[in-house]
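Researcher: Go.
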Amino acid sequence: MRIELAGATVALDGEANAVTDAMLEALRVNGGQVVAEAGAADILLVSCPLSPGAPPRPPRDTHGRARDVAMAMAGRGGGRIVFVISAVAGMPMRRHAGFSMDNAAILAGMRALAMEFGPKVLVNAVGLGLVEGVSVVSGDSAMLSHVPVGRAGTIDEAVAALLFFSDPLNTYTTGQMLAVDGGWMAGYGRNF
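Model: Structure:
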């Protein structure tokens, strides 16, 4: 996917990983300028833990930092915030209740920001299922048995979702989580 960012500034809040590294590179290739200061960004990626074993990131802290950036963006006339979270935000996993709750809280906070700062700031989330690069970068290997497409996702597929949310031509989508999970939420629900 190709978009035109015309020098928009891009920042990362949270820990870098293979997915966010690829996302930042895709935004740069499409004309974005990566900056260190989140408050100066036109596009903010909020990187959340993507696997159950990762150290948790308190949802209130995540929301507070993103809200500060949204306020700065609104003051400048607009911007985009994209949360990179686990798909368990939309469908909890039995074996990972705490991880599921943290992600659901982050998703709720994302939607609250979308309501508070729209229409100037569009706030969305990319919800990742099992994504593999050199190793598993998102999800739990047990997810694969519940994925209708029968395979793990790729980092490029996650990047495509981010580019959709970042595209200047996309002016009407906010408060949404695009699940890049191979249908995991639909497949997992069949077990109940």
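Model: The chain is about 35% helix and 20% strand.
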